[in-house]
Amino acid sequence: MSRRPALLLDRDGTVIRDAHYLRDPALVSLLPGAVEGLARFQAAGWPLVIVTNQSGIARGLISEAEYDAVRRELERQLSAAGITLAATYHCPHHPGITGPCGCRKPGTLLYTQARDRLGLDLAASVFVGDRWRDIAAARAFGGRAILVPSADTPQDERARAAREELVAADLSAMADLVLGAAGAGAASGR
User: Fold this and answer.
1) How many CB atoms lie within 10 A of CB 169?
2) Which DSSP string corresponds to 7-63?
3) Which of 26, 116, 157, 175 could form a disulfide with 132 if both were Cys (CB 3.0 to 4.6 A apart)?
4) Straight-line distance from the first to the last Cα atom of the chain, in angstroms, rounded to the nearest whole number
5) At 2, is the secondary structure helix, strand, or coil?
6) Can you give the pTM of this predicted structure?
7) What pLDDT shows up at residue 182?
8) What percent of the chain has pLDDT over 70?
9) Which CATH architecture has domain 7-179?
């Protein structure tokens, strides 16, 4: 099977506003630039994959059912804009509660699961998030990392990404970096 590049995205603070331990689907709010950026990648044939840490489940702040309701609402809002996610993966763990795991970002387990299930070329893929842990796996696979800072992004992570990777104001600007301002092309390495 021929492998293809994907757009691997963090959820909270990257695609939707970070409501911190989001459990109410009514609070799902797409960030400015999200629809435009995702639509461009979808039009270019890139699978869109969400990979998200959800430690609120381990902390007892949200249930798996509440997480799933929020996931479905995000998919509904994206579908209304003509965007389809190829898959969503989440880590429900917290190392201080459930112990270490391979799926909590910056761990790579969820990315390898997406690779194997969807036939992805992770070295040609783009890893996007608002925290360093969201983009760190790009290095393990040789992919491209882009930080899209949110209000919660620590200044040292912004500075590190500016030095070592790329930074974009939002997902639309990130699409410009990867696909070009005209919307065509493919990602290249760092």
Assistant:
1) 12
2) EEE-SBTTTB---SS---GGG--BPTTHHHHHHHHHHTT--EEEEEE-HHHHTTSS-
3) 157
4) 26
5) coil
6) 0.93
7) 52
8) 94
9) 3-Layer(aba) Sandwich (3.40)
Q: How far is CA 151 from CA 139, 154, 158, 168, 188, in A?
A: 24, 8, 11, 14, 28
Entry field: residues in the chain: 190
| Residue 12 tokens, joined | 């909270």
- Taking the CB of residue 81, how many other CB atoms lie within 10 A of it? 12
Long-range CB pairs of 158-165 (<8 Å, 24+ gap) are 160/132, 161/132, 161/135, 165/135, 165/138, 165/190
What are 40's strand-pairing partners?
Answer: none
State the Cα–Cα distance between residues 77 and 112, nearest whole angstrom: 27
Quick one: tokens of 102?
Answer: 């391979």
Contact by Cβ (8 Å): 49, 87 = yes
Report pLDDT digits (tens) over 10-33. Answer: 999 999 999 999 999 999 999 999
Amino acid found at 86: A
Catalytic residues: 10, 12
Residue 35 tokens, joined? 């629809």
What does the pLDDT read at residue 2?
77
Under a CB-based contact definition with an 8 Å cutoff, are residues 4 and 42 in contact?
Answer: no
Domains of the chain by residue range: 7-179
